Amino acid sequence: MKSFFIYSILLLAALQASAQAKQEIFFADVTIYTEAGKYYLTGSRGGSEGPQGFALLESKDLKTWVVPAQANDSLGMILTKGDHTFGTKGFWAPQIFNDKGAYYLTYTADEQTVLAKSTSLLGPYQQKEVGPIDGSEKNIDSYIFKDTNGKYYLYCVRFNKGNYLYVAEFDLKTGTINPQTLKRCFDQTEPWEATPNYQSAPIMEGPTVIKLNNKYYLFYSANHFQNIDYAIGYAVADSPYGPWVKYKNNPIIHRSIVGENGSGHGDLFEGTDKQLYYVYHIHNSSDKVSPRRTRIVPVVKQWDKKVNVYQFSVKGDQVIVPLMAKK
């Protein structure tokens, strides 16, 4: 009995030490890129968390994260302010993608969308000519989608008495849009997109686009990010430009589903287990918005024979709290 008691104490101490050796991740506007059996996480970082730019974390299981062993520095920075990059502040909402062996990072800085490039997933991501994608007016929350016919499209947010989602054909080589193709995706039309808990102009942002069976699915966040009802829904179209039909059971990620306030602005990705996931951020606590915390939730994809589209939902009781292992 004595030996069992001692074993129990030692086990409890080991578990406590293990918990203390890890800490939550405070990335907002998050994205996860998957390659060679590993996950790579980046997102918006608080201004007090080191240099302006983006850091990258690595994981094999979505639960425990570390700075990659081959990272350029101890913080895992992949893009840094002033290092052949556009932007002086407000480094938000990154997206990593690979095309024909080259790595790209699109992001927001100074309320402009930007494209940077690297020969390595771990960066550094830089620009030959420092500048935004389209400096004609403010635009944020960029997402680059490559269609099955090889064409690229830039989805982003533009301001017009609110935040609205737009799409335009994109030239990856020059890093510019075709302004003649620029089109607003849709307006604020649904009650869940404008709840009274935080009054604001219309806000729809944080786009992710996928294509399945010749249908386009646009996932987006609505409400002000400080609203406890900040949430995620999606719309479906037959073209990258729409017209978009919003899912009747939106939102699919909301505090009533995942149990935490301000659940929004992330990215959809496929895991190494072929399971779909959505990574997003939540409010820091019930009475504090920032620094926002990172979350991951499994996504359910079901074919609806009646309308010939997929329907998406999430497993709100299986939310993953990603933790960073301390060195």
UniProtKB/TrEMBL annotation:
Protein's GO biological process: xylan catabolic process
Record site: Important for catalytic activity, responsible for pKa modulation of the active site Glu and correct orientation of both the proton donor and substrate: 141
An example molecular function term from Gene Ontology annotations: hydrolase activity, hydrolyzing O-glycosyl compounds
Active-site annotation: 29, 205
Keywords: Carbohydrate metabolism, Glycosidase, Hydrolase, Polysaccharide degradation, Signal, Xylan degradation
SUPFAM superfamilies from the UniProt entry: Arabinanase/levansucrase/invertase (SSF75005)
Recorded superkingdom: Bacteria
Signal peptide positions (record): 1-19
UniProt xrefs under InterPro entries: Glyco_hydro_43 (IPR006710), Glyco_hydro_beta-prop_sf (IPR023296), Glycosyl_Hydrlase_43_Enz (IPR052176)
Short name of any one Pfam family annotated for the protein: Glyco_hydro_43
Family (UniProt): Belongs to the glycosyl hydrolase 43 family.
Protein name: Beta-xylosidase
Origin species: Spirosoma pollinicola
Phylogenetic placement of the source organism: Bacteria, Pseudomonadati, Bacteroidota, Cytophagia, Cytophagales
